[in-house]
User: Fold these one by one.
Assistant:
Number 1:
Amino acid sequence: MSNRTFLVVFAAATLLIAGVVSYGASSSPDGLDSATLRGCEVVETDAGEELLGDCIARHATEHRLAGSPLADYAVAGRDGTGGLAGVVGVLVTVGVAGAVFLVIARGRRDRSAASAG
Amino acid sequence: MDVNPVAMHMSDGIVNAPASLLFGVIAIGAVAVAAVRARSELDERTVPLAGLVAAFVFAAQMVNFPILPGVSGHLLGGALAAILVGPYTGVLCLTIVLVVQALLFADGGVTALGTNITNMAVLGVAAGYAVAVALRPMPAARRPAGLAVLAFLAGFAGTLAAATGFVIEYAMGGAGSGSLGAVAGYLYGTHALIGVGEGVITAATVAAVARARPDLVYLLRGARLREVAA
């Protein structure tokens, strides 16, 4: 498989996972979250969901960026936008990571020149 | 229903400020070392795959799989990244994913970034890669099935190492009145199951890449170089 074909297939699989497969994700809390919720009961109130009882999660503070446009993997808090948020996350991640890794790879090539100058 | 169905990482407030600060310093130190040492793993040929591996980990972390009634798990990706692009680049991949999640998706606290990076980007990568390197000399590791088993065990070990990080942090500065033993017991029980899922995803992904482009798999690259040198 050529380098370009391989990278295109890898990128397409990544976008498919974030944009489509993510809709099939379990909405149950993960192992860490459920550990922090043990001992508490989640009840619906007028103000939303509330924790009753004694558990680690009661000490968790609200995320300081909870109001940001992509908070909780949704676009502007709208239902059903998780796939779009995931695709944005993939593009941002590959952009940031690609830039960081390119700088590191070029630093290696330019290292001798930089140390001489 | 749970309070925050899409949170995947530690929130702020779970671990107190002194412990958060300590693990923040540990994380910054480890990431700085990784940034320097990653030079030996990255060249312009491997940069595109390294960038895509970070994005793949981000995407795969979104897909929670059920492990018990009402409890799920998701890929952490440390062993996966280390096997494909190298341990130091792997630390940077996971760190970038965690920073993007915390700052853009409000997932994982900002103060908790140090603990989350220590657990998943440092401990998860280190343990996963250590297991992969330990198993690499076995003749079976050069066959596709053997490589898949190696990747499975590396993923499993990386998950338990990340859970161990949380247990240590909780022991040092955890909030809440639950006993450490109970928290640790529950955490290891769930993460043994999550580790099986992590192992399966790691094995499938590494096997697919190794079938398409074995020359791009960092772990195999190192093995070949050693054989040539020997």
Number 2:
Amino acid sequence: MSTGWRAMLAWAIMAAPCAIAAAATSTVAKAADTAALQRGEQIYTRCAACHAIETNRTGPQHCGLFGRRAGSAPGFESYSRALRNSGIVWNARSLDLFLQAPMQVVPGTTMGYAGVKDAHERADLIAWVSLATRPGTTCHPSR
Amino acid sequence: MNGQRPLLPQDLSLPSRRLALAGSSLVLSAAAVALLGGRDALAAGTKISAASLESDLRILNTALGAEYEAVAAYQVGAESGLLVKDVLSVAVAFQGHHKEHAAAIAATVHKLGGQAVAAKTRYSFPVDKLKTQADVLRFAAGLERGAISAYLGAVPLFADKALAQVAASILGDEAMHWAVLRQVLGENPVPSAFMS
């Protein structure tokens, strides 16, 4: 065996556990992501009295939420002035803040809901919503 | 218990007990709930600021909008032709409860000097996805599940504790609807010890 091959073999032997570990880590991460998304979908059921992904209900539709200015869901007319004027653009950070205590973050909002107090629950919810509200791919906004 | 009466808003205790005991069961009628709601705020204006009252009214109106929507959703289910007779009668009874909730909340909003929101002329429901009785029941169960969380999230926000009591009373009814619908669907009617 040449020195070069011996070196490669040595590298392979050393690297193999790392590769296996990396693959295992990736699988675990994927499983964790899947579990988080499932939890997020379950948490979203709490919103179902007023919200849906693809239709305006008592509250606005969520399709296309990310990157949207608060108070601008297509076809939804019942926004509070407070939310319309809040200047919020919905993203993971603003949702995390708002969902913690909607009426404190935007006094005057019609979303009379104490909030999702658990940070892990909010993270799971936001992760699922970010996936489920992609217009043209996972949802189609109503007009 | 230490022998003391539980603390109730002063002007609530006797009328509410009379109202609660008036029927054959201890279930409050819509009229009773309407009378309960807002009494605290009306009688004790100094305790609740105008801002708190306005906030309470906003929460009530959001709940009212959702109740109107639930009434409309049950109407869609009732008219779908997908429900067998016994299930239809239960759905209509649940719809009746939502009508009572709406009437009670609207009356309370008026009583507090607010303007109650009106039902929408048109609602958007996923009717194209309702192909079987189970689809209809699952859709209704989803709304009821959401209603439980909505009221649960509203209860601690009311400045007027009598309104929180009303919301909790409605929450209990929504939870019963949800459990019954799950039972009919063959799902565990009470899947957990706590709701959130």
